[in-house]
C-alpha cells in the first residue's frame, strides 16, 4: 500500500478512506496483521495493524522488507489522449518501470486538459499492484515547443515517427543511456512539429514497424522495447 507519510521504524501511519475500506472491508485485516507499505522514498516496510475501527486503522512500521528499487532512467513523453486510453498508458508505463510520465501538448491533440490527480491515482494503483517501491514522477503538461527548447543534452529523445525512422532495436542499441520516448496523439504530429523534433540534437527518429499503431499501443510497445534492452 502506498502512503504519503515518510516511513521509518516505529512510525504510526493513520489510514482512512478508500485504503482503509480496502484493508478492513476487503482484505479483512485484523489486529496485529502485517501490511506492506511504501512511501516512494525509503523502500518497503512491514507494518502492524492497530486500532482497527469501522472506517480507519493505524499501521505501525516495524522493519524494512525491501530497499528502494532501482529505477531505469526512462521517461515516457506522450500527447494527451482520451481518458481511458491515457489511463492505460499511465498504468502500463508504471508497470514497465518508467521513471517519469510527461504529458506533452501537441497541435493535433484532441484533449487539451488532463486530470493529473486521476492519472496519479492510476500510477499509485499500478505501483501497488506490480510491487514497485518508487512511484513514477508525473510531469505537469507542457507544450511541445517548450519541451524541445529545454531538452536536456544528456538524454536521448526517441521520436516515434509513424512516417519513418530507424528500426527500433537498432536505434535503441546504438543509443544507450538516459532516454525518453515521444509519442504523438491520435492524429499524429503535424509536419512542422515533426521537423522541430528532428532538429533537437539528441532526437532519434524511430519506427515501430510498418503499421500505424494507436498512441497507447505505441507508448506501451516503445516502453517495453526500451526496458527489455536497458531496464534491469
Ligand atoms: N498520424 C497518424 C494518422 O492519423 O494516420 C496516426 C498517429 S498514431 C495513432 C499516434 C502516435 O503513435 C504517432 O504520432 C506516433 O508517435 C506513434 N506511432 C504509431 N504507429 C507508429 C509506428 N509504426 N512507428 C512509429 N511511431 C508510431
Key descriptive features of the protein:
7 helices; tRNA_m1G_MTases_N; binds S-adenosylmethionine; 232 residues; single chain; elongated; S-adenosyl-L-methionine; methyltransferase; alpha/beta; Ribosomal Protein L25, Chain P; Alpha/beta_knot_MTases; 33% helix; Ribosomal RNA small subunit methyltransferase E; eight-stranded parallel sheet
What is this entry, summarized?
With 232 residues, this protein is an alpha/beta fold. It contains seven helices and twelve strands.
Please state roughly what percent of the residues sit in beta strands, choosing from under 5%, 5-15%, 15-25%, 25-35%, 35-45% or over 45%: 25-35%
Q: Give me the Rg, rounded.
A: 20 Å
Task: Name the helicity range.
Answer: 25-40%
> What is the CATH fold-level name of the largest domain?
Alpha/beta knot
State the domain count: 2
By CATH, the superfamily of the largest domain comes out as: SPOUT methyltransferase, trefoil knot domain
Second CATH tier, the architecture of the largest domain: 3-Layer(aba) Sandwich
Q: Biggest β-sheet: count, sense, barrel?
A: 8 strands, parallel
What ligands are attached or bound here? Answer: S-adenosylmethionine
The run of helices and strands is: EHEEEEHEHEEHEEHEHEH
Query: Which oligomerization state do the chains in this entry correspond to?
Result: single chain
Silhouette? elongated
CATH classification, class level of the largest domain: Alpha Beta
**What average pLDDT do the residues reach?**
96
Q: What class do helices, strands and sheet pairing give? A: alpha/beta
The number of distinct β-strands equals: 12
User: Helix count, per DSSP?
Assistant: 7
Query: In whole angstroms, how far apart are the ends?
Result: 24 Å
Amino acid at each position: 500500500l502506498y502512503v504519503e507519510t515518510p516511513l521509518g521504524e516505529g512510525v504510526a501511519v493513520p489510514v482512512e478512506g478508500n485504503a482503509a475500506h480496502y484493508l478492513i472491508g476487503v482484505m479483512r485485516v485484523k489486529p496485529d496483521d502485517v501490511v506492506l507499505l511504501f512511501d516512494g522514498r525509503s523502500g518497503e516496510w512491514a507494518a502492524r495493524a492497530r486500532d482497527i475501527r469501522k472506517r480507519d486503522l493505524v499501521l505501525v512500521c516495524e522493519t524494512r522488507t525491501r530497499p528502494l528499487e532501482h529505477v531505469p532512467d526512462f521517461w515516457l513523453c506522450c500527447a494527451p489522449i482520451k481518458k481511458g486510453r491515457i489511463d492505460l498508458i499511465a498504468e502500463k508505463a508504471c508497470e514497465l518501470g518508467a521513471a517519469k510520465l510527461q504529458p506533452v501538448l501537441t497541435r493535433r491533440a484532441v484533449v487539451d486538459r488532463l486530470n493529473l490527480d486521476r492519472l496519479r491515482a492510476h500510477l499509485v494503483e499500478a505501483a501497488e499492484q506490480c510491487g514497485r517501491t518508487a512511484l513514477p514522477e508525473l510531469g505537469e503538461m507542457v507544450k511541445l515547443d517548450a519541451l524541445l527548447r529545454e531538452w536536456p543534452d544528456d538524454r536521448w529523445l526517441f521520436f516515434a515517427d509513424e512516417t519513418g525512422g530507424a528500426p527500433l532495436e537498432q536505434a535503441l542499441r546504438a543509443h544507450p543511456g538516459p532516454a525518453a520516448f515521444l509519442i504523438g496523439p491520435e492524429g499524429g504530429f503535424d509536419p512542422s512539429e515533426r521537423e522541430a523534433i528532428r532538429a533537437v540534437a539528441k532526437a532519434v527518429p524511430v519506427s515501430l514497424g510498418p503499421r500505424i499503431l494507436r498512441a497507447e499501443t505505441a507508448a506501451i510497445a516503445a516502453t517495453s522495447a526500451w526496458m527489455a534492452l536497458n531496464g534491469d
